[in-house]
């Protein structure tokens, strides 16, 4: 399954093939954390989608995989090789899309995610981080959580750099304003790192993982750019975990 075009997030995912974000989501899901279901698309499939060269059997496989979401909206997210690593977060470089529905919208979103990895800004960032080679961008497609409140969990304090406590910043809606830096978070909470899993999960109970529900059918796709994120190993706890 290492080089499969589509791999479910519930399987073991190789960060060197499908990117660090997909790998971390896979680890979280396999650990029993409430991660919305989904799959990762191989960088070669992403590139062929962007170039309108997706093979008929690949298009059929993608459509089949989307059937698991029924009529619900999905999030289409970047997972470039080297992204969300210990030394390079690619914060603000790659696009993600929320409220995406149907095969045609998903294909368009995949192409746009690929294009965001080819921009001059993204290439300069790669050069500054000494990441060699052409950009290779995998894509994650996940069920969208129609969250009333959402935000970001920083496992390293974004101001002090301390790993002794976790910081949660949240606001109303799907969280794109918080993640993109477009709005001041409505809530900010601190959790001591020594807290056990169940303790901080209870602390985050205001984020409802209700991906069995559907967002409004009138919702239009929303583009977000994963904006300033000083802690490279932060974890989103919202519609796009």
Structure description:
Residues 196-219 and 225-241 have low confidence and may be disordered. This protein folds into two domains: 6-143, ATP-grasp fold, A domain (Dna Ligase, domain 1), CATH 3.30.1490; 149-220 and 231-236, no CATH class. With 241 residues, it is α+β, with helices and mostly antiparallel strands. Strands 1-2-5-3-4-9 form a six-stranded antiparallel beta sheet. The chain has a four-stranded antiparallel beta sheet with strand order 8-7-6-10. The protein is globular, with a radius of gyration of 17 Å. The chain has helices spanning 15-18, 20-30, 43-50, 56-66, 102-116, 120-128, 176-179, 197-203; strands at 6-8, 38-41, 74-80, 95-100, 137-143, 149-154, 165-172, 187-192, 222-225, 235-236.
State Rg.
Answer: 17 Å
SS field, number of helical segments: 8
Taking pLDDT < 50 over at least 5 consecutive residues as the criterion, the unreliable ranges are 196-219, 225-241
Helix fraction by DSSP (H/I, runs of at least 4): 25-40%
- What's the mean pLDDT score? 76
The run of helices and strands is EHHEHHEEHHEEEHEHEE
Strands, total number: 10
The total tally of domains equals 2
Characterize the largest beta sheet: strand count, sense, and whether it forms a barrel.
Answer: 6 strands, antiparallel
At the fourth level of CATH, the homologous superfamily of the largest domain is ATP-grasp fold, A domain
CATH top level label of the largest domain: Alpha Beta
């Amino acid at each position: 399954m290492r080089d499969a075009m589509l791999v479910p997030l519930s399987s073991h995912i190789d960060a060197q093939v499908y990117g660090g974000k997909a790998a971390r989501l896979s680890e979280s899901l396999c650990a029993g954390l409430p991660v919305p279901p989904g799959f990762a698309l191989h960088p070669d499939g992403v590139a062929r989608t962007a170039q309108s060269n997706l093979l008929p059997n690949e298009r059929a496989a993608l459509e089949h995989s989307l059937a698991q979401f029924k009529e619900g909206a999905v999030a289409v997210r970047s997972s470039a090789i080297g992204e969300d690593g210990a030394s390079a977060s690619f914060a603000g470089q790659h696009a993600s899309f929320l409220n995406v529905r149907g095969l045609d919208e998903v294909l368009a979103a995949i192409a746009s995610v690929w294009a965001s990895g080819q921009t001059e800004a993204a290439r300069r960032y790669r050069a500054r981080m000494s990441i060699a080679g052409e950009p290779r961008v995998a894509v994650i497609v996940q069920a969208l959580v129609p969250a009333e409140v959402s935000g970001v969990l920083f496992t390293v304090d974004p101001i002090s750099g301390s790993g002794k406590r976790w910081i949660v910043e949240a606001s109303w809606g799907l969280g794109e304003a918080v993640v993109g830096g477009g709005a001041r978070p409505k809530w900010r909470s601190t959790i001591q790192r020594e807290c056990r899993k169940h303790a901080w999960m209870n602390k985050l109970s205001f984020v409802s993982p209700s991906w069995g529900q559907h967002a409004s059918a009138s919702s239009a796709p929303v583009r977000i750019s994963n904006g300033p994120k000083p802690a490279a190993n932060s974890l989103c706890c919202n519609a796009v975990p």
